[in-house]
Design brief:
alpha/beta; five-stranded mixed β-sheet; 41% helix; TIM Barrel; two-stranded antiparallel ribbon; globular
Amino acid sequence: MFLILLDFNKAKLPNQDTRGKRGTDECLRLFDQFITEYTNTRIDLYGGSIPNRLRLLVDIFQEIRQQVSPDFIIGIRFSEGKVNDLSYRWPGGAETAKAIFTEIHNINADYIHIAAEDGNWVRECAYGEHSSSNQIAKQLTGAVVIANGGLNDLAIVTNLLIHEHADVAAIGKAAIANPDWPELI
């Protein structure tokens, strides 16, 4: 999980990148380490409950929001899977997602980007047939939600967008292999 800033010249924050390149990626993954129970064993205000484990992200997000103009776009990227544990899912599944995105609602992110680290959106983001982390984020935060992760199957993307799991489907490999792929939707 990390913050994504879209205008670095105005923000005047060093070492930030929209894609979290390797130099900043490690620093920005700190947020994910705080939200993950098995990496955050703190017993202070930044550990334990979901609101506490999100506190660092919320504090930094609010400070950035105060430092930039109101029209400055700030988003947050989440993924349940970890770069070193691709099979990890949030304990409690949909209930944990609801608790997380209830807290995130309070900071008014401009968008939320939910990634399937291992490239399989259905396996990594869906909770059964009718729910997903993307849909929960969309319903609870009101933010624009971007889904990504192996979305090269037209049926999956169409279903995802029609059933309002997300506002945007981010594609990479499918568009590279077939440049007119977006026109097929």
